[in-house]
Specification:
Layout lengths: L1 H65 L3 E7 L2 E7 L6 E2 L5 H19 L3 E5 L7 H14 L4 E5 L3 H5 L3 E9 L2 E8 H17 L1
Parallel strand pairs: 4-5
Antiparallel strand pairs: 1-2, 2-3, 6-7
Length: 203
């Protein structure tokens, strides 16, 4: 009887311990589910808010780059859908645009995302390769208007884009296998030319 009583007490003690553990685990699981639900709701609200900002910024940037037209960005089960209408054309999917139009649309979307996130700097490489002179001018103007909060580093051979820069960096190879890097501040050149013109006028 003593042995049975002892085993019963041990079993009860074990049962009490496991019951408490189960209660703790159940409470923790409930808290996690609630936390996941709250986090999911907050993420949806945050995404909706940011998406609305990007949607408006995309429409504005598109009009700046194309000199008119309209553009929309919508969410679907498949992902994000873009529908754009360059000036004088009906609205169409981005896959039906020309190479230059796709480049401008992509730049408009990138600009919209940057306007929402505002990173300290961005690096763009060859994004203006498919742009003609008029589109390059609009792109350079858009870039200048957005560089107050974000430093823009652009790798380009486009004269219109380079003309809008504050500083130009170039790489030359005067001797085979030896590269030289130089920089030019356009403001200094303008100031020097102005001073030279004043001097010539005085003479």
């Amino acid at each position: 009887d003593t042995l049975i009583q002892k085993e019963l007490e041990e079993a009860n003690s074990r049962y009490t311990y496991l019951t408490k553990q189960l209660t703790d685990v159940t409470a923790a699981a409930t808290n996690i589910v609630d936390l996941m639900g709250n986090l999911h709701t907050r993420m949806q609200q945050k995404f909706a808010k940011q998406f609305a900002i990007i949607e408006q910024a995309f429409a504005n940037a598109f009009q700046e780059l194309f000199g008119g037209g309209s553009a929309t960005i919508t969410r679907s089960e498949e992902g994000i859908e873009l529908a754009v209408a360059p000036p004088g054309k009906r609205k169409r999917h981005i896959s039906l645009l020309s190479g230059g139009e796709r480049s401008l649309t992509s730049l408009a979307l990138l600009t919209a995302i940057l306007e929402c996130q505002k990173p300290p700097f961005i690096l763009l490489y060859g994004v203006d390769a498919a742009l003609d002179e008029a589109n390059s001018q609009r792109f350079a103007k858009l870039l200048r208007s957005r560089c107050a909060d974000t430093q823009c580093i652009v790798v380009s051979h486009n004269r219109e884009v380079m003309a809008a820069a504050d500083v130009l960096y170039g790489v030359t190879m005067q001797q085979e296998g030896v590269s030289n890097i130089y920089s030019v501040k356009l403001a200094d050149i303008v100031a020097r030319d102005d001073a030279q013109q004043v001097e010539e006028f005085s003479v």
